[in-house]
């Protein structure tokens, strides 16, 4: 890791919003791209999760790190869109964190990166009722991305796929699934089309889909 990357990661683990903002400013001045900055903050956020699980950090620390991530996204998201190299608008994608789940940091990173790649992203936010994904697909979205961060909510991804089958519209949409507990094996098991481990992998795979 070069200096700026390490500083972004370290600032995230130190979970203080001003420290995260300062590291972001420094990285921008050093010429790092918004995409790269977000990826490195994301790595730090994942480590915050690990430290939380080990009891080394507590909920207020996680909330503070999440607030720092959000403040960075507020600045870098519009910048990424402005600099977006995407020309033609690709397919419409509905994105959301599934019902019962409020974790939206990773999903929002994916949405922003997809937008930058030229997709027309309809981000429904978090705790999205199952039927809202279906409505968007009936309204013309050709791709559907569902995020789930808990073992208790990842089953909702499967429920939505079953609802699509029941409605007879499963073939009209490519379903992408992601979130920390989700794996390629789970994606295959529930019959989703794409598993994305990270925002960059998601964007690459979305671009490769034949729609
Ligand atoms: C931050 C965080 C929170 C924040 C969320 C803030 C926010 N606005 O998102 C707060 C503090 C609010 C929170 C709350 C809770 N949390 Co929490 N949280 C986390 C934590 C520490 C980090 C998650 C994160 O942001 N990671 C960083 C991002 C960048 O990574 P990511 O989300 O994985 O996203 C990447 C990829 O997965 C992928 N991706 C993500 N989405 C998608 C979607 C698609 C379509 C694709 C293709 C790819 C993709 O790309 C992303 C970018 O690279 C995790 C720990 C962990 N190991 O994940 C726990 C964790 C997820 N939380 C957990 C729990 C239990 C909770 C609570 C229930 C706690 C409580 N008792 O109240 C509540 C949930 C309430 C609810 N109903 O949802 C557990 C879940 C356990 C389980 N059952 O599986 C975890 C694992 C921690 C733990 N070990 O206990 N949490």
Topology:
Blueprint: H1 3-13, H2 17-29, H3 34-53, H4 59-83, E1 92-97, H5 105-116, E2 120-123, H6 130-138, E3 143-147, H7 154-166, E4 174-178, H8 184-190, E5 194-196, H9 199-208
Parallel strand pairs: 1-2, 1-3, 3-4, 4-5
Helix pairs in contact: 1-2, 1-3, 2-4, 3-4, 4-5, 5-9, 6-7
The structure holds cobalamin.
Cobalamin is lined by residues 42, 45-46, 48-49, 52-53, 59, 62-63, 66, 100-107, 109-110, 145-147, 149-152, 176-181, 196, 198-199, 202.
Low-pLDDT segments, ≥5 res = none
CATH architecture title of the largest domain? 3-Layer(aba) Sandwich
Strand % is 5-15%
Into which percent range does the helicity of residues fall?
A: 55-70%
Rg calculated over all Cα atoms: 17 Å
Number of strands: 5
Describe what this molecule looks like in 3D:
The protein is of the alpha/beta class and 211 residues long. The protein is 57% helix and 11% strand. The protein contains nine helices and five strands. A five-stranded parallel beta sheet has the order 2-1-3-4-5, sandwiched between helices. α1 (3-13) runs antiparallel to α2 (17-29), α2 runs parallel beside α4 (59-83) and α3 (34-53) packs antiparallel against α4 (59-83). The N and C termini lie far apart (37 Å). The model has no long low-confidence stretch (mean pLDDT 92). The protein binds cobalamin. Cobalamin binds next to α3, α4, α5, β3 and β4.
Q: What are the salient characteristics of this protein?
A:
Rossmann fold, 2 domains, binds cobalamin, alpha/beta
């Amino acid at each position: 890791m070069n200096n700026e990357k390490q500083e972004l990661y370290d600032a995230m683990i130190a979970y203080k919003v001003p420290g995260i903002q300062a590291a972001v400013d420094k990285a921008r001045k050093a010429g790092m791209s918004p995409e790269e900055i977000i990826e490195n903050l994301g790595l730090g956020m994942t480590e915050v999760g690990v430290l939380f699980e080990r009891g080394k950090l507590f909920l207020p620390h996680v909330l503070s790190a999440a607030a720092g991530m959000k403040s960075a996204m507020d600045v870098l998201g519009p910048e990424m869109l402005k600099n977006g190299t995407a020309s033609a608008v690709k397919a419409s994608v509905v994105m959301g964190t599934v019902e019962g789940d409020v974790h939206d940091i990773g999903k929002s990173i994916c949405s922003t990166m997809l937008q930058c790649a030229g997709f027309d992203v309809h981000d429904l936010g978090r705790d999205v009722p199952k039927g809202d994904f279906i409505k968007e697909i009936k309204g013309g979205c050709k791709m559907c991305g569902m995020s789930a961060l808990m073992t208790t909510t990842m089953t909702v991804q499967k429920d939505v796929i079953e609802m699509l089958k029941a409605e007879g519209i499963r073939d009209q949409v490519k379903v992408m699934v992601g979130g920390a507990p989700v794996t390629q094996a789970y994606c295959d098991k529930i019959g989703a089309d794409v598993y994305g481990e990270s925002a960059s992998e998601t964007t690459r795979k979305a671009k490769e889909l034949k729609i």
